Amino acid sequence: MALPSRVEVGSGTLPLLPNAAPAADQSSPIYFLHIPKTAGTTFHRFVASQFLPSEICPTHLWHELINLPSEVLDQCTYIWGHFYAYLWRHASRPMRYMTFLRHPVERSLSHYGHIMRHDGHYLHARARELNDFGAFLRDPILSTTLQNFQVKSLALDLDPHSIAATLSQESLNQLLLEQTLETAKPALPVEEMLAIAQCRLDQMCFVGISERLEESVALSCAVFGWQTPPKVDSHNVNPERIQARDVRDSDLALLLELNAADMALYESATRLFDGARQALLRDEQTPNGV
Q1: Rounded distance between C-alpha atoms, residue 262 and residue 73, angstroms
Q2: Structural domain boundaries enclosing 232
Q3: Alpha-carbon span 198 to 145, nearest angstrom
Q4: How many domains does the chain have?
Q5: Residue 68 belongs to domain with CATH number
Q6: What is the pLDDT of residues 157-209, one digit of tens each?
């Protein structure tokens, strides 16, 4: 498998997604890189409605994907899951990437609420034992799910197969592979991780913004040629989760500190989104052939 290509940035180079394809390449499957708690389930249900069930990857978790027969994945035209930026290590064919980003504070609080609510989550017991957001934020393991998680989702380049080879089947079934991948601590400086994530956003066919869901769906329809739905119903929403106004000032300050790179990435994504929407509006207002 070919190594990732790189792009010159300042005095150095940064790795790009090695198999990113343009939106117009309809021979390449769409890969929705789903970062947890970014309205991904809602958006996925809309996108899935554009495909036949047989065209959709039947799993969204790594421990199942690594055991999926290659011929099954090869026939999928839509792949969705928490496979992050290293799916290319498992499936190297060209793919049309898309993702969603969310304000880091809201994403973090939603992720915390999800872990606390779902007893099947691999960190649920540890989080419940602490039963406090501030303690969660300061725990060396738990905090990795809230610290610049969106940057890590786009910039890390881990090898799930090598990690899985060290685990028993029982450990895989207990989501230890997902835990290892999602709690990994970057070896690179955070500034370099942010630069990689920003470059990779630029490679994507579509970047949505969770807080602007309906606009995002409409833009994705324009990019991929889908029919815009009259309404988008939200799914997987936890109305009882902790709100920013309920977080202690010291905890909120720490959360913002831990997500400085995510905030910069979110601002970059918002600029990309606004630019794409403005270009679309210009195209709609320009007569054909003019």
Answers
A1: 31
A2: 6-285
A3: 20
A4: 1
A5: 3.40.50
A6: 999 999 999 999 999 999 999 999 999 999 899 999 999 999 999 999 999 99
